[in-house]
Design brief:
The chain has 260 residues and is mostly helical. The chain has 13 helices and no strands. The radius of gyration is 23 Å and the shape is globular. The N terminus and C terminus are likely disordered.
Amino acid sequence: MSDSAGPSSSTDQRQRGLNVEALKQHILTHKIDCGLWAIRVLTILFTCGYFLPIFGSAQNAYYKALIANAAINALRLHQRLGRVRLSREFVAQLLMEDSCHYLFYSMIFIYVAPLTLVLLPVVLFAILHSASYSLTLLDTLGQNSWWGARLLISLVEFQSLNILRLIAFTEIIMMPLTVLFVAMGRASLLTPFIYYHFLTQRYTSRRNPYNRNMFHELRILFEKTAAKPTLPSFVKSILLGIINFTVKLAPPQAQAQHQQ
């Protein structure tokens, strides 16, 4: 009687437990995806280490987060474009990729003094993408594994739209901050011009419309605020001046849309 109960009970335990063998097989089959997930988790840990420098220097954690972000986007470019080709078409396709934009982003700020807001888009993207792939890993382990982690992932996915809007707002607000950093002597004179190129790439992104949408929302907000009769005239002039200046700096296709 004990012999017959033994195999069935062990089978039930395997069904209720973690399917480690399936996870190992998944990692071997999807090495790059799992590597990206691991680096994204490291990015989150490095960012936490910047805000809570318990195990090392906050400055070192800051630059490690940027380097990890660069590695993530370099791997993503390898996934999407494959081998590097010396052609104009390849360069044009490269510059249209969102991963290229954020590889460029890391290269901009890795040579600038630490600025807390720089890490916000980096860590938010890491949280979004690691959460989605964590669900795949949990499904591989077993349907009932780590229900607490599944709850956190569902919360991240529920707030994904707000997270992407916050990232877009941060990308925009970083532009005047780079100018301020130059005035404070914490960035080079080229930093705002290089960042402006990054911002135009984000605005014209094919896969990510959130930057364009946020620019549009901010313009509507400024125009509504400037139209209030109780607003002082000098504040109204400042708001309209910001709108006109931003439209002049917008890419050509964006300028045509604003004129229409």
